[in-house]
């Protein structure tokens, strides 16, 4: 219950600030000011817009299938928000410590496809239907390389528990698994044990350098999963007005947007856990200077909770900022280019990385 209330409150606050941040970042990239009038530097503009959305009339098209049209946005948002139920925020606080946490997360988040299809089909609009079909095809296509990257991490970590994956990438791994060791680049022959050094050297992208490529594939696929540029073809304003949510207004439209921004945050949290050390600090111990221990805090202590939440949220926000930057920097792909990237490049590369991960696990750890 505490985790639910925390994530719900955190998510609502995150929505207000990330929308404002995206407006300001896009304005900076395009050499303009962005919101400036409502509040100091326009900081209250998002709150004003949210109040306006809540008060707007909920318009349902006369020819729409109301049984599909009305619940569609709610399903999109709830399926994304349910994914936070298994995310570890610190060493002892977060969602449920499920032994099949990754499996649950991938399964529940996939349900947003149903909500998108219901919204587009139920709108009885060509724009909405085309947008929904594009979105479903895109999400299903990019779930394959994204899922295969998760499989790679599971093969190396030998667990589906997100909390245990986070523990394996920090200096406290020996305290819960006696005799466990992390060797630089995963090669014992080097003889450089980084378990007690901690920091960035124990993150998965350094434990197994093949994960550097895996992280890039995961990040690209996560952009497509979130319908973010340059993969925002389902919402192409120049072609489809707004895509599958063209006919929505007011609160239901805000649910769709909350689902999109929620997916951005969720995949950023997941990327941080799988590849970037989770709640562990990036600072290593250097000789007698114990930066890793000082900036991590012992699990279960107040310092451990504060530092863990700080590093986890900082990594997630950094990745969200990168997604925003990419949207306003790169042009939108054509539909054929999007499908070619997934099926001809990312999926074969992901299959090769699964094979390499198996070899790495057998011979180098």
Question: Any key phrases for this structure?
Answer:
365 residues, mainly alpha, 2 domains
Number of domains: 2
Residue-averaged pLDDT, rounded? Answer: 87
**Which H/E pattern describes the elements?**
HHHHHHHHHHHHHHHH
* Spans where pLDDT lies below 50 across 5 or more residues: none
User: Main β-sheet, in a few words?
Assistant: none
Rg from Cα: 21 Å
* Count of separate DSSP helical elements: 16
User: Class by helix and strand content?
Assistant: mainly alpha
Gross geometry: globular
- Helix coverage percent of residues? 55-70%
- How many β-strands, per DSSP? 0
Distance between the termini: 39 Å
Proportion of β residues?
A: under 5%
How does this structure look, described?
The chain has 365 residues and is an all-alpha fold. It has two domains: 1-55, no CATH class; 68-364, no CATH class. It is 61% helix and 0% strand. The chain contains 16 helices and no strands. The chain has helices at 2-29, 45-55, 66-69, 72-81, 101-109, 112-122, 126-157, 162-167, 173-176, 204-207, 210-225, 237-240, 250-275, 291-294, 302-327, 335-363. Helix 4 runs parallel beside helix 13 (250-275). The protein is globular, with a radius of gyration of 21 Å.
Q: How are the elements arranged and paired?
A:
Blueprint: H1 2-29, H2 45-55, H3 66-69, H4 72-81, H5 101-109, H6 112-122, H7 126-157, H8 162-167, H9 173-176, H10 204-207, H11 210-225, H12 237-240, H13 250-275, H14 291-294, H15 302-327, H16 335-363
In short:
This protein is 61% helix and 0% strand. By secondary structure, it is an all-alpha fold.
